[in-house]
Design a protein that fits this description.
It is built from 13 helices and ten strands. It has helices spanning 25-35, 41-48, 72-82, 136-161, 166-176, 180-199, 212-220, 227-247, 256-265, 302-313, 345-348, 361-369, 374-386; strands at residues 59-62, 65-66, 88-91, 100-102, 105-114, 119-128, 269-272, 290-294, 324-327, 331-332. α5 (166-176) packs across α8 (227-247) and α7 (212-220) packs antiparallel against α8 (227-247).
């Protein structure tokens, strides 16, 4: 596509042409569909009828997964269908900065900041559910973090259209290798999306104020534009998103130590997810219960991380309360509600409680040396949470 090629919307079946310059009824309806948490019958069926069943997996350990806007009863139905013969389980949801419960346990994945090595990190925090029913201080910390983290959406939008962020957009364009026509297309429709966000701010659920609404809006534009143009736009959007996330200020996140202290005050447990993304946390000596040595985004150093945990547990200080080995499926249930053709295959393939590395023969020796398997971790961690 040349830089001068004009991007023309397709003519609809009714003969009308979508006007990219003005907000239309289609734009408003699409926006509300994207932020609406109500699921259609087809979407509910995608949740409750999994494509795979694992009758031989008798233990289900799932302490890193995200319900998003999917109702918990539907998720329970999916889990029951996937693991019909499970006899041992520990299933705890970890929504980003929102505390949620499943049966007797509650959990959350918290964004926080480690001043000692100047990095934003995440912590998985888990509780016996009754201990956080009145956890006012912790809930207020989460609410603050959620509101602050949500600001990243508006930085993402502004990075696409505001002159003061032109350097970010220019860098993303270079990396994506897209043409001027793609940039113009993205900016035109991002301006419309920003108008929708501002116009319907009071009607938009806070849980919907997330970066993914931008990508989902452009995905919906397939109703009007060529698939190739949408694909090129998505490439650029993902590059801008990466740059925005990397440059997002950490000033207003709570310190990692503050989050851990509050969790401990409530009798909760703390697990470090995907530590390979921020190595210094392995040296920080935080008061945590375990490390996640594998998840779909972080699986290059699983055996090394198991060895690190094994060595740390040999120290006298760790003898009475060893670091546990966890694996996270990092499942995002909302992805499964989308039309299959528009799902992110990598994300949609993740399942609650499915971590193949536990059964990987190349990793088994390291796990045996570490005295770790699903059942042992479930029993040990449950005992800690129930103390």
């Amino acid at each position: 596509m040349s830089t001068s090629e004009q991007v023309v919307p397709r003519r609809s079946n009714s003969g009308s042409v979508y006007d990219p310059r003005e907000l239309s009824e289609w734009d408003h309806q699409t926006y509300f569909r994207l932020v609406n948490a109500d699921l259609t019958e087809k979407q509910q069926a995608r949740i409750t009828k999994p494509k795979k069943v694992l009758p031989r997996q008798s233990a289900v350990l799932a302490v890193h997964w995200h319900p998003e806007f999917v109702p918990m009863p539907l998720i329970r139905t999916r889990i029951d269908a996937m693991f019909p013969n499970r006899g041992c389980e520990l299933i705890i949801p970890t929504q980003h900065n929102i505390l949620m419960s499943y049966d007797d346990y509650a959990g959350v994945e918290v964004d926080c900041f480690s001043h000692s090595f100047n990095r934003k990190v995440q912590l998985l925090c888990h509780f016996e559910a009754s201990r956080v029913e009145q956890a006012d201080v912790f809930r207020s910390m989460l609410a603050h973090t959620f509101r602050y983290r949500s600001r990243q959406l508006f930085e993402f939008v502004d990075a696409l259209i505001e002159p003061k962020f032109a350097d970010r957009l220019e860098k993303a364009v270079d990396r994506a290798g897209v043409e001027d026509s793609v940039v113009e297309f993205v900016q035109t429709h991002t301006r419309k999306l920003k108008k929708l966000l501002l116009e319907h701010e009071s009607e938009t659920p806070v849980e919907a104020i997330r970066n993914k609404i931008v990508l989902h809006y452009f995905c919906a534009l397939r109703d009007h534009y060529d698939e190739r143009m949408i694909h090129r736009a998505e490439v650029l959007l993902r590059e801008v998103k990466r740059i925005v996330k990397r440059n997002f200020s950490n000033d207003s996140f709570y310190a990692t130590e503050e989050i851990i202290e509050e969790v401990r005050n409530l009798g909760g447990g703390v697990v470090v997810p995907h530590p390979e993304q921020f190595w210094p946390i392995l040296l920080a000596d935080y008061d945590v219960d375990g490390y996640e040595v594998w998840n779909p985004q972080s699986r290059d150093y699983t055996e090394f991380l198991i060895t690190v945990v094994t060595k740390q547990n040999k120290s006298r200080r760790r003898a009475s309360r060893p670091i546990l080995i966890f694996m996270g499926d990092d499942c995002h249930m909302g992805e499964k509600t989308r039309e299959p053709a528009y799902q992110d295959p990598e994300k949609s393939g993740r399942e609650v409680g499915v971590q193949p590395a536990w059964d990987d023969l190349t990793i088994r020796k390291s796990l045996i040396i570490a005295n770790a398997d699903r059942v042992r971790v479930i029993e040990d961690y449950r005992a800690r949470l129930n103390r």
